[in-house]
Amino acid sequence: MDQEFQVDFDEVRRTLDRAEVITLFFPYFRKSLLLDTRRSPADTPLMRVVPMVSSGEERMRSVQQMRPRLGRPESLALIPWPRYVASVKELGVWQLIVDRMIDVGGSPTEVTLERCYRELLREERNEFRRAVTGEGYRSLWQRHAEA
User: Fold this and answer.
1) Per-residue model confidence as pLDDT tens digits over 55-87
2) Could you give the CA distance from residue 97 to residue 12 in angstroms, rounded to a whole number?
3) Does residue 69 contact residue 42 with C-beta atoms inside 8 Å?
4) pTM of the entire predicted model
């Protein structure tokens, strides 16, 4: 799974630098790291693990609902990550995220991001456990009782 997906660091860096709202989403377990770089006197930048959505427009609506005082974001970046969560750090993308969010929110954001990272690891592990035990999954083949 991890070997097939190549990361264009320059493109990821440009995306992180330009977009107001960034969603790094993990299709294997349908969770996203939502980053909203916007701030106001009453609102700090947002970093949160959220359920994956089916479209950019749906994500825009969800961000507006979460942060109504800030209005509609001017830009949204959707970054699919069909790799293991740990690879985000191993490949250096996590540090790009940390640097961007520190730029907009200061050093306390690093603690929040680390909590998000651990939550993503937990969610991934739980999904793999469910897949192995069959919880929430259906088999393609049914075992037939021998007569």
Assistant:
1) 999 999 999 999 999 999 999 999 999 999 999
2) 9
3) yes
4) 0.87
Length of the chain: 147
- Tens-place pLDDT, residues 22-42: 999 999 999 999 999 999 999
Give the Cα separation of 22 and 76 in Å (integer): 6
Distance CA 62, CA 56 (A): 10
What CA–CA distances, in Å, run from 103 to 14, 110, 116?
15, 11, 18
Q: β-pairing, 76-80 with 21-26?
A: parallel
CB 105 within 8 A of CB 45: yes
Helix, coil or strand: residue 37? coil
The residue among 121, 141, 138 whose CA lies nearest residue 130 is 138
